[in-house]
Specification:
The complex is a heterodimer of chains A (207) and B (255).
Chain A lengths: L2 E5 L6 H11 L6 E5 L2 H6 L2 E4 L5 H9 L4 H11 L4 E4 L1 H4 L4 E2 L5 E2 L6 E5 L9 E9 L10 E7 L1 E5 L5 E7 L1 E9 L2 E4 L7 H13 L3
Helix pairs in contact in A: 1-6
Chain B lengths: L5 E9 L2 E3 L13 H11 L4 E5 L7 H14 L4 E4 L5 H10 L3 E4 L1 H5 L2 H10 L4 E11 L2 E6 L4 E6 H11 L3 E6 L11 H10 L4 E4 L5 H9 L5 E4 L1 H4 L5 H10 L9
Parallel strand pairs in B: 1-3, 1-11, 3-4, 4-5, 5-6, 6-9, 9-10, 10-11
Antiparallel strand pairs in B: 1-2, 6-7, 7-8
Helix pairs in contact in B: 1-2, 3-5, 6-7, 8-10
The chains are: A alpha/beta (207), B alpha/beta (255).
Chain lengths: 207, 255
């Protein structure tokens, strides 16, 4: 029975992410675990890191759970498990975040999370916007609209990690990927058919 | 490649059933909120809004259960408002499956609840709902309790304060127009959208498709909310989006 573990560290979109994954499950034998127990993380087949709110508070929440950060590094670096970060969960993949203060991220994809340069447009960037693939990736569905809610963006040091972009004042990464790790700035769990395909593709992804 | 203007059907929910108040008084039953929300999401609604008008705070369980069942069905964002008094109420609704929480009277009583909600859940989850009545040319006052209780607070000033306090969005309802289908109060809308840099949802008064476009092109709204024109089948979500598109407004094409 394949198990996907949704990392529970107090993120606000945990429940909707759980429902999204359950709906996207390719077959009924999939199980979605919600846990902050390092053993459970290491035993799962795939990991999902949700996240809404501020980078600093999400990072603090994650680090308040004993052994979770180490388990994430072990699952990704040693076990090569497929790992998905959603919204702030995607931003946490970066080396650092600049929201409110400088906060260290997970350092799984090189880059910095900085304020979106909306060039006078309203912030947060809230609503449906085009996701445009920059390169082929097994998890990306055909280009469509997805639901975004954010004020910060992931500036990747490695351009190669940017697999899809979106425009709002500036062009910023809508999705990033490296090895077995993928992140979405949008909310696949709220993005209708596009989001459902994205989640299903992630669950079936064999990097 | 652009952010789409959101079209948001709003369901007034009382004791777990959909109602639509004409000027918040004359209530009519219009069905099951979960089914209605799922149908709207499938029809291309960009977001769904529930406003709970259940009188008693003790009946909160019914709302939470409705929210949970809706979140299971509708794969689009769900905003829930009505009777939200504290950061704990915000968290309980988020936990039930809502994405954004509208805070109305409690924020008028004490705007620090917006900050507390934003600290607990992030600004993106906190919507400040403002019910305003035109009291003099170019002046709008906030009213609470379904439009019965004046507060003496200027609506435009309060919108600015809400942004400063951490709200991520404003849901602006004209109490003069709500339920009367003569169009949104565009002057009020323009005054508020000019005053803040967060998204503003236009609410109260949509009766024809042209009203939706006007709220965006003339009022500067980022999203338009409507109830009765959809609930009673006057127009479909697709018809509304096509009409907006014809007026040059970017919409999410779902047909």
């Amino acid at each position: 029975m394949p198990v996907v573990c949704l990392i529970d560290y107090g993120a606000g979109n945990l429940h909707s992410a759980k429902r999204g994954l359950e709906r996207a499950a390719p077959s009924p034998d999939w199980r979605v675990e919600v846990s902050a127990d390092p053993e459970t993380l290491l035993a799962a087949d795939r990991l999902v890191l949700p996240g809404v709110g501020a980078f600093a508070s999400c990072a603090a929440g994650l680090r308040a759970r004993d052994g979770v950060e180490q388990a994430i590094h072990e699952a990704v670096s040693k076990q090569a498990k497929p790992f998905l970060g959603i919204c702030v969960g995607m931003q946490l993949l970066a080396d650092r975040g600049l929201e409110h203060q400088i906060t260290e991220g997970l350092g799984l994809i090189a880059g910095t999370v900085r304020a979106l340069d909306a060039k006078g447009l309203r912030v947060p960037h809230m609503g449906w916007n085009d996701v445009r693939a920059r390169k082929e990736h097994p998890v990306l569905p055909a280009d469509s609209d997805a639901y975004f809610v954010h004020s910060y963006v992931f500036e990747c040091e490695d351009e190669d990690a940017v697999i899809a972009t979106c425009d709002y004042g500036e062009t910023f990464p809508a999705a990033v990927a490296k090895d077995t790790v993928i992140g979405a700035q949008f909310h696949p769990e709220k993005s209708g058919a596009y989001g459902l395909s994205f989640l299903k593709n992630f669950l079936e992804w064999r990097p | 490649m652009t952010l789409k203007t959101r079209l948001i059907p709003c369901l007034d929910v009382k004791d777990g059933r959909v109602v639509k108040g004409v000027n918040f008084v004359d209530l009519r039953d219009a069905g099951d909120p979960v089914e209605a929300a799922a149908a709207y999401a499938a029809a291309g609604a960009d977001e769904i809004c529930f406003l709970d008008i259940t009188a008693s705070h003790e009946d909160r369980g019914t709302l939470l259960e409705t929210v949970t069942r809706t979140a299971m069905e509708a794969l689009c964002p769900l905003t829930v408002g009505g009777g939200v008094r504290s950061a704990d109420d915000v968290l309980a609704l988020l936990k039930a499956g809502a994405d954004k929480i509208a805070i109305n009277s409690a924020a008028v009583r004490d705007p620090s609840v917006l900050t507390e909600g934003a600290m607990a859940a992030g600004s993106q989850a906190v919507v400040c709902a403002i019910d305003a009545k035109n009291v003099a040319p170019g002046k709008w006052e906030i009213f609470t309790h379904g439009g019965r209780k004046p507060t003496g607070i200027d609506a435009v000033e309060f919108a600015r304060e809400a942004e400063r306090r951490g709200a991520g969005e404003i849901l602006l309802t004209s109490m003069d127009r709500d339920g009367v289908k003569t169009g949104y109060d565009l002057e009020l809308l323009r005054a508020v959208t000019d005053a803040v840099n967060i998204p503003v949802i236009a609410s109260g008064g949509a009766g024809e498709l042209q009203h939706l476009s006007d709220a965006v092109t003339e009022g500067g709204a980022s999203a338009v909310l409507a109830a009765s024109i959809f609930h009673f089948g006057t127009y479909t979500i697709e018809e509304a989006k096509r009409a907006m598109q014809e007026d040059g407004i970017p919409v999410r094409v779902t047909w």
